[in-house]
Design goal:
three-stranded antiparallel β-sheet, binds pyridoxal-5'-phosphate, 14 helices
Length: about 425
Amino acid sequence: MRVLINDAGEPPSESAEMGRSPSGAAESARPMTATAQDYLPFHRPSIEDEDIAAVRRALESGWLTHGPVCREFEATFAAHVGASRAMALSSGTAALHLALVALDVGDGDEVITTPMTFCSCAQVIEQVGAIPVFADIEPVTMQIDPAEIERVLGPRTKAIIAVDYGGHPCQIEKILKVAADRGIAVIEDAAHSLGAAVGDRRVGSIADVTTFSFYATKNITTGEGGMLTTEDGRLADRVVRLRLHGIDRDAWRRYRNSRSWHYDVAEPGFKANLTDFQAALGLSQLRREPATRARRSAIATHYTEALAPLGELVERPTVATGMRSAWHLYPLRLAGAARLCRDRLIDDLDQLGIGTGVHFMPLHMTSHFRQRFGFRGGEFPITEDSYSRLLSLPLYAAMSDTDVTRVATAVTDLVTRHAS
Ligand SMILES: Cc1ncc(COP(=O)(O)O)c(C=O)c1O
């Protein structure tokens, strides 16, 4: 049985990195047996010939690390999401981390986020010396609840990491209003939501800072990678400096003609840049993002229609009026007489050759956050209730209609059987 806790689609024991293998693809974790070829993994990346050609060109150019292709990726990405600045980084986690550092979040500050997210959201808060404070989620959308944010806000709140769970935007405009009234910065974690929108505003151009992930399972991938977008030029310049050892490139440029060896280290920075061959993959994937998103959306609609006969035995994800989802996940919650059969359903689907995921193991229920911050369970009832009956169905552009029907039929049969 494979109960999955992150987007990797792999068992936690597979790797020291919380269930991630170097490839990040679910099928890579599965031994090649006679039945393995029939296995429908939770995720399979779409790597086309044009992607491979683009990476090959970048490799053949002789420039391997951050260079002209990264700059082109940044400019194209910024235009794609309607942002004025975009900085390519080594991961979504690095983007969150550098956002906090650039916002001067540090010792003793509090940062609010959701417990229904990947662990890196809270780890970066801890890594800058701040304290993660969780706000429970909304019962219907599973997005961080603005009313809960208001409830846990305090004098030490310095920032909010508002996660777009599953690819659907959180109530970012409401959250920005709550924060603006108190001078608090808002980072929108759009690891799942590239291509999503709120009205005519694209995710990436709405919050003070937006962070994206290009991890292997994300809607576009560079293997590992991330992007940070912002309208704040000073913050953008700081991120550029922080991602490469704190080296001040202006000082470098000033002297470069007369003294090519000269550069200044302005602060303790990080090594968080992207390579040009990863950017080449990202650029190539970005060109297909609208088409990929349309396919993901069609698969989600197919699931929703095919699962309709289950009625109140399941809660299916929906899209709020005026919002556009990037459909990173299809999180299904079991309900009514079926609510207690999640683990058995995952097992049975696995036996039928269908991989699933659980997004997420709530952060306050993991040992580190319990021991370090004293969470006991019961504090975030909506998150805990959702988690207990939640599973993510396979959803990726490479799925055929037959694959989607196969999953929906298996889920319908099993849930009906388990509930009776
Ligand atoms: C909601 C969320 N935020 C942040 C991240 C971190 O992104 P990365 O894996 O690129 O560091 C992830 C990755 O799974 C995620 O799901």
